[in-house]
Write a structure and sequence with these properties.
Layout (H helix, E strand, L loop, with lengths): L21 E7 L6 E6 L2 E5 L8 E2 L2 E2 L2 E5 L4 E4 L10 E4 L5 E4 L20 E2 L4 E2 L5 E5 L11 E3 L15 E4 L5 E4 L27 E5 L7 E2 L1 H5 L8 E4 L5 E5 L2 E6 L4 E5 L15 E4 L12 E4 L28 E4 L11 E4 L10 E4 L5 E4 L2 E8 L13 E10 L4 E3 L9 E2 L14 E5 L5 E5 L17 E6 L17 E2 L6 E5 L5 E3 H6 L1 E7 L2 E3 L2 E3 L2 E5 L1 E5 L5 E5 L12 E9 L2 E2 L3 E5 L27 E3 L13 H15 L1
Length: 650
Amino acid sequence: MLLTWLTLGLAVPSVLAQKPGSFVVVGDTLVSAMMMFVGSSDKVYILDKVEGNAHQINGHSLYASVWDIASRTATPLDVQTNAFCAAGMHLPNASFALFGGNSAVGPGGDNSAPGSTTAFDPTYQVYDGRRAIRIFTPCEGDVNSSPCSHYDSANGTQMAKSRWYPAAEPLANGTVVLIGGFVAGGYINRNTPNTDPTYEGGAAEPTYEFFPPGSQPPQIMNFMVKTSGLNSYALTYLMPSGKMFVQANYSTILWDYDTNVETPLPDMPGQIIRVYPASGANAMLPLTPANNYTPTIIFCGGQFMEDDWWGNYSYPAVDTWNVPASQACHRITPEPMDGSAPAYVQDDNLPIRRTMGQLIALPDGTLLVINGASNGTAGYAQRTGTTTTFGGMPFGESLATGAVGQPAIYNPNAPAGSRWSTAGLSSSNIARLYHSSALLLPDGSVMIAGSNPNVDVNVTTVYPTTYTAEYFYPPYFSAKTRPSPQNIPQTLSYGGNFFDITVPSSSYTGNANDAAGNTTVWLIRQGFTTHAMNMGQRIMQLNNTFTVRNDGTIILHTAQLPPSPNLFQPGPAFLFVTIGGIPSNGTYVLVGNGQVGTQPTAPASVLPPSVRSTNGSSKGTGKNSATLAHVGIGSTLRLLLAAAMTLALS
C-alpha cells in the first residue's frame, strides 16, 4: 500500500532572472537525456538507454543521473535494467514509475559480444528491461543516501508482458494503464508483408495492463491491431467522462478501459502521423474555468509518408531525411460540452515544419514548442530501403536532418492566424533530435537535454551523442519583479473549502486592483518526458477571487480542484501565481490523498466575491527581486515513504 504524505515548505533563494528568450548552456548531464522527470523542487532525474557512456559506476557505464537544478551538476545513479524507450508516470504518493524498455544489450546495441544475451550483458552489466518496473522516490538530499531511494531489480516487481515503447496514462484512482509496445523490433512496429498485425510473429504486444495490477490479466486492445506498425508510444489523454482519448497511426478513439469498448473518432486530417517515429508535438491545452475545464488536445508537426515508405522493424523504405516534416497543427475536443460531434479542426501552422518537436505548458497559459528537425523522422538506422550501405548514409545513423534551433510560443487564446510567435526568441546551436528531451523547471525556465540518434555512444558523427544541458528562459523572464505568494497549502483536494494565498505588495508592480484582476493561479504537472512527449503533462487554472488590502497586499481566495480526479489525476504538481503574465516560482504540492484508490471528493469550492481596495493609490512596490525558490519535502516523511515503498515491492 502506498503511504499518504505531505510536503513541508523550505525556501532557498538562488539565481536572478536571465535574459528573456535566451538559451544558456548549464552543464554536463553525465548521460544523454533520453528521459527526464522533475522529481522534486530541486532535482531532475535523467535516464539513458544502455550504451557505452564514458562515465562509470560500479564497474560499468553509467545509464542514469540526477540533476541538481540550482548547482547545475549531475550525480551518478546506478540502474540494473535497460530502460531504453521505457514509459514513465508519476504515482499518487509523488514517486515515479518507469515501465518496460529493451532487452539487455552490449557494445553496438546488440548481443554480438562474447557472453551477451537478451537476459544479461556482462560488458554493460545490465539485465533485460522489457518487463521491468522501476520506482524512484525523489528527494532533496544526497540521491544515493536515505531518505532517497530507487528500486530496480531484474527479479523483482515486473509487468505481465514485455513492453518496449509502451504508452502510459494515469487514471482517476492513481492506477496507471500501460498500452501496447514492441516485444522486439526497431523502427516501426510491423513486419513486411504485414500478415500478422496482432502479434507480428511475436514482435508486437497488442495488450494493455494496469499498475498496480488488478485481477484481470492483460487483454488485447483492438486499436493496437488496427494501427499496426505506427502505434509505438500511442498518445493517450484521460477525459472527464473517465474514458480515454487514444491516437495512433492516423486513427483516433475514445476507449472505455473498464469494458475494453472503443468508440471511433475522426481520423487525423491528411493522415499525418503524430506518434513515434513521426513524433509530432502534442499536448492538452490549459483547463480553465472559461472553458469549463473541457479538454482540447493540439497536435503539431509530425510526418506524412505513403504507408509503404515507413518500411518495417528494420528500417524505413525511403531516405526519410529527404522528406519534409509537417507544418500543420490540429485541435480536437473529444468530449464537447455542447453535445456536438468531436472533430479535428485546422489550427495555425507552425512557424517552421517540425518532427520531434515538443510542447511544454508554461505558467502563463501558453505553450512552448522546442527541439526537433525540419526533415525526416525519429529513430536511427544504418541503411534504408533506398540507401543500402552505411557508408552512403549522409547523416550517420540519423534519419532526420535540419535541426530546428528556434522555439516558438503558442497562445491558445489568441485569434486564429496569430497564435504562434517567435518574437524575441533566440536559437540554440545544439541539435536536439532523436532522444532529446525538455521539461518545465520550478522557476518557469525550461531544461533541454539529450539527443542521440545513434545505436551506441558516438561523439564524432554528424549528430552526436549529446551530454550538454541548456536552460531556456521564456519572455516573462524580462520581469525585474516576480510574484512571491505565501501560505500555499502543501496538499490540494478535489472540491472542498477554498484557501487563501497572500501576495505581498513587494512582489508585483502597478495598481493593486488591476494586478489582482489580472492574476491567475496555475497548477502544472510537467510529466515524464521522452521521445518528444511529456506523458501525464497537464495544466489547470484554479478559480479564484480576491481581496485587495489598502496596503497593496493581495489575498487570493483560491478554489480547490474541481471535484473530478479525471481532470487532473492524483499526484505531484507545482502551483504558480501569475500576475500580468509574470509567474511566481512554482510551489511543490500534492494533489489527492497520496494513495492508490478512489480519491475523496467534496462539492466545488464556493468563493467569496472579490473586494477591491478603496485606496486608489494602493500599488505594488516591486521591491522583491525575481529569485528562484525551492519548496521541499521533509526528510522524516521521505524516510517513511521510502520504507513503505520498499515494503510494498518486497
